[in-house]
Design brief:
With 146 residues, this protein is mostly helical. The chain has helices spanning 6-31, 69-95, 105-109, 127-135; strands at residues 34-38, 45-49, 54-58. The protein starts with 5 loop residues before the first helix and ends in an 11-residue tail after the last helix.
């Protein structure tokens, strides 16, 4: 036996399935995201993944050979930081449209955002479905709830 709410519940389930598929596609796009930066004078070029892991270090010119070790280390660190910032920005461009107002990807990654801001207190659903979930379907709408 089906109830008048079965269609609404099925629509909610379909909406959930669609959101899940979209989330999986978004995750795939994020995993393909990279950030790259090149130091001044092309001393070094660095690429990082969306997770900030260094995936490539290149020395396009021989300029690094004329640098003191500390200077080269500083340039490497700075260029890695720039590449990571670009990766975070690129991920933010993908994620921010899907986040609630006032929550940014950068804030989430830096631990500045409250993760509970991502979800409402109660799941979104029509009042009639919420009533059905909370109290069950009543054939006689005038009958007292039990």
């Amino acid at each position: 036996m089906t109830t008048p709410y079965d269609r609404q519940i099925e629509e909610l389930l379909q909406e959930y399935r669609s959101q899940r598929e979209n989330a999986l596609a978004l995750r795939s796009r994020i995993n393909e995201t990279t950030g790259s930066a090149t130091a001044p004078k092309q001393v070094v070029k660095v690429s990082v993944s969306a997770q900030g892991e260094v995936t490539a270090i290149e020395f396009p010119t021989g300029a690094f050979r004329r640098m003191a070790p500390k200077e080269l280390a500083d340039v490497l660190i700075s260029t890695i930081q720039q590449a990571r910032a670009k990766a975070v920005t690129a991920v933010g461009e993908l994620m921010n449209p899907h986040l609630p107002a006032g929550v940014t990807t950068a804030d989430l990654l830096e631990g500045k955002a409250d993760p509970t801001a991502l979800l409402s207190e109660e799941p979104a659903m029509p009042d009639s479905v919420r009533d059905y979930v909370n109290h069950g379907y009543r054939r006689d709408q005038n009958a007292p709830r039990g």
